[in-house]
Amino acid sequence: MGARRGLRRGQAAAAAFSACPFLALAVVLLALPELAAGDTHYYTFNVQMTNVTRLCVTKSIPTVNGEFPGPKLVVREGDRLVVKVHNHINYNVSFHWHGVRQLRNGWADGPSYITQCPIQGGQSYVYDFTVTGQRGTLWWHAHFSWLRVHLYGPLVILPKRGEGYPFPRPYKEVPILFGEWFNADTEAVINQALQTGAGPNVSDAYTFNGLPGPTYNCSSKDTYKLKVKPGRTYMLRLINSALNDELFFGIANHTLTVVEADASYVKPFTVSTLVISPGQTMNVLLTTAPSPASPAYAMAIAPYTNTQGTFDNTTAAAVLEYAPTTTRNNTLPPLPALPLYNDTGAVSNFSRNFRSLNSARYPARVPVAVDRHLLFTVGLGTDPCPYTNQTCQGPNGTKFAASVNNNSFFRPRTALLEAHYRRRYAGVLLADFPTAPPHPFNYTGTPPNNTFVQHGTRVVPLRFNASVELVLQGTSIQGAESHPLHLHGYNFFVVGQGFGNFDPVNDPPGYNLADPVERNTISVPTAGWVAVRFLADNPGVWLMHCHFDVHLSWGLSMAWLVNDGPLPNEKMLPPPSDLPKC
Asked: What whole-number distance in Å separates Cα of residue 411 and Cα of residue 36?
């Protein structure tokens, strides 16, 4: 529990939590600046339906404690976080603490049917975990169907007291969450798409901290404004919580210095525009002008995509405000110049800037020797239409699907982690996930005639502490596009990337093994590949999936089964007593 002072405060907070969870939450947040590392923070999540109005459309949406976006959680490295979730809605729900490694404790990871059965309506579950060896910006979100479109919020992990940042301390820190707003019910949107086989309807707006802003109908009053002082440095904690879109971001007449990605420090680099994929986080330093020429500047986000389908091709705006302004007719300052929606070159140039800090305090422990080499194709595919005498609305009368190595993930009937812990695999999972494409083809060239996928609940078993090199290869089936892949329970090092088909002879000599960026979510380039390495030092069952929720719904996911090590501290913890039942 850490220092005695922290233990006392943790005990006091626990008592307050039992008596009045909302009061305890306020106490914890107010006391945070005085807390020592190793404290325990108690939060209550009441998942409830709340009426919210955007774009002049009012609808009832799931929220946490009536907030949209949800509450900001703040801890320090080494702290324990205890979140009691009460589900008061008619949907099942679970919560993922995106990027938290959950060492030996997959029970707190959150993806439904992978590490837990979902929390059913009227039921509760306590997520109890310690943040070990991590500091920076992460986030939390629902991990059931498309509920994360409304159920998300920032998770800020401050450094241990006295450590500070490896860059000058900013004047102020501000979380900015990029999101999507649908006028329609998103559960109806995805359910209809899965039934018809078509691509789902797209969002109606992008948002800054839940607000669409003045580029959309009826939304000038719903504009996010970041109030700043001249000549100061602000740290923006950026989070892409959008459902299905990678986003460009920029601020007119300002530059941004990237200092962290996915809660890992990077060698600082400065850009005028950045791109961020769903699931990714990024800390950037914004130094304001000492003598600004204008009282306000526009911030903007717009999509990056190469999809052949429809997408939300709109731009959301917010305001960087040096002084309160009352502009005539709510005139928006000029927007920053963002790249075109399909500018893969701009994305590639930005992505190649990332390097781990790799200092004595924050080394890049990239595996040099590799025990397991794997090649995964990631992309779209199809399923035959199951309806007699009918055609579906996907390609050529089929249904859209997605897969990894042509295996489209089939949702199990119970949680994989519990099946593994109790060694009850029969009828739940198979440990035969293909570690190379079962039918090799010209992945980024002309697609094969047969694009049907296979279905199964398959995992890749790994020996504890095995070093893994995974090449993620994009395909051109149903059109080449990028895929943001997120690995639960781990960070990985991005040692190489390129366009076209991966060459196992000529590409590895060009790997960066000195200071590769460390991430938990990486976008597989459009018609390209990315190579990552990680050490399988966290036992459990860990999901890896595309963070476009439409592709996740179509089956673009798989799981790693990492076996226990021989020592007591290398084995999974036992499940909590309140683990939900399926």
From this structure: 42
Find where tokens 């005498």 sit: 389
Handedness of CA 537, 538, 541, 544 (dihedral sign): negative
For residue 171 the two structure tokens come to 């004047």
Question: How does pLDDT run across 286-307, given as a tens digit for each residue?
Answer: 999 999 999 999 999 999 999 9
**Cα–Cα distances in angstroms (integers) from residue 383 to residues 174, 331, 443, 453, in the given order:** 44, 49, 19, 6
How sure is the predictor about 326, in pLDDT bands with cuts at 50, 70 and 90?
low
Q: Which run of H or E residues covers position 301?
A: strand 296-304
CA distance 200 to 202: 6
Asked if the peptide bond before residue 539 counts as cis, ω within 30 degrees of 0, the response is no
Q: What DSSP character marks residue 420?
A: H
Domains along the chain with CATH numbers: 34-163 (2.60.40.420), 167-355 (2.60.40.420), 372-562 (2.60.40.420)
Tokens coding 55: 């774009």
The C-alpha atoms of residue 264 and residue 134 are separated, in whole angstroms, by 8
pLDDT digits 0-9 by tens, 495-520: 999 999 999 999 999 999 999 999 99
